[in-house]
Amino acid sequence: MRAPPVAVVGRYPSGGGENGGVVKGNVDIIKHNRRCRDLGFLLIFFAFWVAMVVNSSFGFNKGDPLRLNYGLDYKGNVCGDRHAEPDLHELELTYWLNPNQVYQSGVKGTSFILSNARSICLMDCPIPSKDSLNWVCDYPEGDIKMSIDDWIDRNYDYFADLTPELRNTSLQLQGPCYPVIFPSVNVYWTCQFIARASNVSMTHWEQMGGVKVIEDISIDKSIHKEINSRSSVLKRYVADIEKAWPVLLVCGGLLPLFLSILWLLMIRYFVSGMPWVTVVAFNILIISVTIFYYLKAGWIGNDAISPIIGEHDPYYHVSARELGHLHVTALFMSAVMIVSFLCSIAIVRRILLATSVLKVAAKVIKEVHVLIIFPVVPYVILAIFFMFWLSAALHLFSSGTISQNNCGANCCAYDLKARRISCNSCCGFSVHYTPHITAAIIFHLFGGYWATQFIIACSSTVIAGSVALYYWTRGNDSCEIPYLPVLSSMKRLARYNLGSMAIGSLLVSFVESIRFILKALRRKLKGVDSMPVSWHGKAIYNTSQPCLSFIGCLIKSVNRNAYVMIAITGKGFFKASAVATELIMGNIQRIGNLNVIGDVILFLGKLCVSLMSSLFAFLMLDTHKYKSSHNKISSPLFPVLVCWGFGYIVASLFFGVVELSIDTIILSFCKDSDEHQGNAQFAPLLLIETLDDLNQTQRLA
After folding, report:
1. Which helix (H) or strand (E) holds 339?
2. Residue ranges of the chain with per-residue pLDDT less than 50
3. Helix (H, G, I), strand (E, B) or coil at 72
4. I need a labelling partner for 331 at 20 to 30 A (CA). Which of 102, 109, 550, 660 fits?
5. pLDDT at 15
6. b/e per residue, 262-287, with b = 16+ CB within 10 A?
């Protein structure tokens, strides 16, 4: 039997306490005499959250997610809005009444834009009659005594009830009724004209004395260009997230929770086979997800996404940016799949050593049972936060101001309320975004990432504090540790170290944000052909992104070690980072790349959970609910990526138990060795055997 645990006294004392700074015993070996650290950064974090609440309130007050999906009519109403005048809750499709205005907006060099053409909201896209002339009339008001429901039942046509005067203005394409000469299809809740006029309808129109209707491909291209604009595509992607919220709940929340707990239990009871299971499962999942991207891109089978909603001519096809994005993603996933497979082959010889590393963590989980279920606490906090954050994001993205365009164009249209033709202005309405809205969105995205990193940092520190207690009570021979270590670790964190968590998570968020901005600038420079010409300019351009990626990974690694030392010593973030780095560098010959081997398997495990979430998201989005009518999504790309991201975050919370167990044991071993002239006194026997195996492998290599 070893001697009873004694106080840890050495180079990094935490000061005196009630019992000399350290409380002896199996449970209270961790030092308790602490004080608040990095308080200034905690105040900055709180101030930032006040600003986040104000920013989100602006979005909730000004935003309307309906704008992400549906267009505007000539009155500035959002199609599908039940609070509009008239009530448009069943009328979700945008239809342009005057085909000549649509043509004019597509003419090269014109100043007339499509948003200024007269548009109304309909339930379905009108089609020309096979034996007569169909009409679409303006909303019934003024002398037209008809309800909206009756107007819909009559297929939007009350031309037969018009006076001779109004019939004459309609034949001049001045309303209130307009002819249906071109067929149209529902493309993302917009009636896309097909530039092939109906001969029957055109003949009837000319026989009635209607003005000349121009038949030209510009009618098709004008609407198609508007639908495929970058802003429209981005709005649809964001709207997809709102429509697919049940998928996000199941595949981004509940499924990763189940898979992560299952993985931890398997580590606890089946640790010897888990590295092999993880590597094999990862390769199967990444192949499966890549195949789904090929299916939706149309390169395999006939299940490619289509921008057309509802029934349509099977020989009529409409191109969409979303399909091009899926093509690029499929190619990217192919490259990732090949690289992943080659890397899996390369690490086969290291898997046995990884098993030994995971056994150390499994031993900790066996002793501290509550570590398996503790991540549920930050999981619930993150779930509540993401529900609020996503809702606020949807409102911020749609928080522009609807105002009339300043087009300066003059045209005439019959005003049913005024009972006369108005020729003042035909300027339409658009959603206008000011620069401060863009800043608010960027601020919200940064705040979401910082908050996520903060919660993960807090979870990591609590786990590290509990595992450190296991080590310093002579882990391998310790008695069963009760729930108290996790609770006391949470208490110490909340009382002393939240400021350190704030600065650590801020550093990661800042570096990642800079990298994202530089990546966007690189894409923009490529787009405008403004590449650097000098050799040093090209060198900076080509190396900036990899350097920032390396710095980001380095900061994350330093942060994790800093959280461990904060949990053990209670020092501030920067001091804890310095101590952790010094300990690792001082023992680099002994610990080698021990934690790197374990991290690789854990990283693959996180990817397995996130890829499984993506795979199930594909399956759920492939049902009829998300492929037709009201709930149709433009592309599975964004919902699947969000599910992947949420799955990875949830997996990080739970896999952090194993990850932080390994890191904490290693850092505690380094500190123990440093305190006792190179001979660790508290190291578990399993850790010593693992280090011996690693050193033996390195000597053989």
Report:
1. helix 321-346
2. 1-29, 475-480, 482, 528, 700-701
3. strand
4. 550
5. 34
6. ebbebbbeebeebbeebbebbbebbe
Six-digit token string for 91: 């009328």
End-to-end C-alpha distance for the chain, whole angstroms: 37
By residue count, the chain amounts to 701
Q: How far is residue 558 CA from its own chain's centroid?
A: 26
462 token code pair: 């609590």
Helices (H), 184-307: 199-207, 218-227, 230-243, 245-249, 255-269, 274-297
Q: Give CA angle at 341 (339, 343), nearest 5°.
A: 70
**CA-angle at 177, arms to 172 and 178, nearest 5°:** 65
Q: What are the residue ranges of helices labelled H in 88-198?
A: 99-106, 148-153, 164-171
Q: Could you please report the per-residue DSSP string of 383-439?
A: HHHHHHHHHHHHHHHT--EEEE--------EEETTTTEEE-S----EEEE--HHHHH
Give me the pLDDT at residue 636, please. 94
- The pTM of this model reads 0.84
Helix, coil or strand: residue 13 = coil
| Segment 518-562, tens digit of pLDDT | 666 666 555 545 555 555 555 555 655 566 566 666 666 677 888
Quote the pLDDT of residue 445: 92
Task: List strands edge to edge, sheet with 93-96.
Answer: 119-122, 93-96, 190-193, 184-187
Q: Which amino acid is at 418?
A: A
- In the numeric block, the tokens 């101001």 are attached to 401
Q: Give the model confidence (pLDDT) of 178-211 as tens digits.
A: 999 999 999 999 999 888 888 899 999 999 988 9
Distance separating alpha carbons of residues 330 and 293, to the nearest angstrom: 5
Does the CA dihedral 275-281-285-288 come out positive or negative?
A: positive
Residue with tokens 């969409």: 320
- The answer to whether 507 and 479 have CB atoms below 8 angstroms apart is no
DSSP code of 160?
A: G
**What pLDDT is stored for residue 546 in this prediction?**
65
**How would you label 555-571 residue by residue, b for 16+ Cβ within 10 Å and e otherwise?**
bebbbbbbbbbbbbbbb
Q: Is 27 exposed, middle or buried (0-12, 13-18, 19+ CB in 10 A)?
A: middle
List 185's β-bridge partners, or say none: 192
DSSP summary character for residue 188 = T
Strand partners, 422: 413
